[in-house]
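Request: Give me one sample?
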Amino acid sequence: MPMIRLTVPSGALTEEGRKSVRGDLAAVLLRWEGAPDTAFFRAQAWSYLIELPEGAQTTAEDDAPRFLVDVTVPQGALSERRKAGLVEDATRTVLEAAGLPADQALRVWVLVHEQPDGTWGAGGAVIRYADLVALAKGRQADA
């Protein structure tokens, strides 16, 4: 159930970055979640790009674009080390998509939302983290 959502001001990404950032962020999320690299798991990593209209984002200081990455994962799916790696790689991916240097990293915020067990459903049923772990172990042979 990994999901990643990038919110940006319209026009803040390069043309190439706009085309690739959703897939790139989904791949980052799957890598740090430790999911098998199979078509099934790639299809479950939902990635959204939300572009705000002109003038919809600002700070008390300036109007330079800021980037918000919201990540939703099952509770327990990411260790502290994995969260740190996810935040670092997601930040780098967004900066690259916007054509910005690494010294602009504070313009990217990454919020990791851990969904409590038993509060997510798909296909008409509640899915638990243990179900996903078992599914991943069974699907690793398909990779």
Remarks:
- The chain has a mean pLDDT of 91.
